[in-house]
Amino acid sequence: MEHLTENSMKTLRILAVDDHEMTMLGYKFILERIVFDDHNILVDTATSYEMGKEKIEESVHSFKYDIIFLDVQLFPPNEEQPHNGEDLGVLARELVPESKIVFMSSFSDNYRINSILQSVDPDGYMVKTDIDPKSLEEAVKTVVYQPPYYSSKALGAIRKKMSNDITLDENDKKILYHLSIGTKTKDLEKHIDLSSSSIENRKRHLKSLFGTEKENDLALILAAKNRGFI
Amino acid sequence: MEHLTENSMKTLRILAVDDHEMTMLGYKFILERIVFDDHNILVDTATSYEMGKEKIEESVHSFKYDIIFLDVQLFPPNEEQPHNGEDLGVLARELVPESKIVFMSSFSDNYRINSILQSVDPDGYMVKTDIDPKSLEEAVKTVVYQPPYYSSKALGAIRKKMSNDITLDENDKKILYHLSIGTKTKDLEKHIDLSSSSIENRKRHLKSLFGTEKENDLALILAAKNRGFI
DNA sequence: GGTAAACCCCAAATCTTTTAAGGTTTTTCT
DNA sequence: AGAAAAACCTTAAAAGATTTGGGGTTTACC
Questions:
Q1: Does the predicted model carry a pTM greater than 0.85?
Q2: Which of A40, A196, A223, B104 has the most crowded Cβ, counting Cβ within 10 A?
């Protein structure tokens, strides 16, 4: 603690978790300079899942964080890691439900956004390319007083989802997702608990839903992307 | 036209449709005073469905509006009227797809918000109690450069919907909606194309989905409201 | 040009939803 | 409190969807 806060000031505690040291410093620098009513902003940082987890667990019995910023990808994606920001978000929700959670993600892909909005229901979601001092400040203020805050690109994805009348069940979503990452139709059986025949049926059905009958898988995937499903 | 615009200025044309004369004046007053890059803002108004329709139709062959603000309820709701803002929005989308559409609604109820977001997919949605000079200005700027703009209460409804894993079909939604406006179960058959037996089945199913088994309809409706369906 | 994958069609089995008919419980009104 | 209406439940048959296996044809790719 560098200096005592003035009496009249409330302290706004923020935890930021991102595995890039430099990015963290940037966030800390910006966040602590936000002028916000009579709040004194204090930013704590963590650069890994474990560190983040510890800080959140410590906070349970001391001062709870007002806002927790979480990077969705907490580790280099090539090294297989069991945990990511989404899990940390779920954990934080359980341990300290009063802390607001804001996700930061480099991908604006709808599949992940939709999944996080469902599993964690964060108070904010920011696509990294939308993040700058101005949007960070807006996020902090909005999240404290009237959440949620969704950054511009996140809103774009949300809009697509909301304007959609097509509803897909888990199996359909999985099929689309696996096709989109290049899984071959014959290998889908390994990931989805259905016979190959059913999978073919569902693919046909999906293509008719998305208006890409008799076209190839790429057309289906593009249509599904446009509509916000992947 | 009161005075010529400067050469360097682009004109931003706005149409606002609301059946309250005074509200219209307020919007016009605020909107035309927005300072926005080198834009000169020009607000046209209409106070009924027909007037709005005419202005939109005229605009097709002259200068298209950049933004159209539409009140959802265009007539006193007790006098039966065939048209409302939603219809006008659908019409505008067809005639002038390049114009951005922003809805203004006094009800923040999720059923209507969801329905409008699907049928028109507007570039903005503002709940009236969220509207003030600041939010109007933000709406205009956001809608022009990076739509969509959703006001705080609208975002609240959207968040509920997005964080939800329950998916309902049209019949389920209609059942919930009619129950919520007080329609008796025995009268539901008149509005929904199903047998009374099926409707009872679906009500049972809905109650189990929303965790209100063996409870009465009020409990179901409250749960559905909490989850953003009505 | 041959092979693997993708795609299509059919019919049986299974699962889900709808429907009607009859009953019990709860609510509402007098 | 008692009658009537509405809500709710149960059952079983019918209709509709989905799944599955077994066959085949077409398309893509080396």
A1: yes
A2: B104
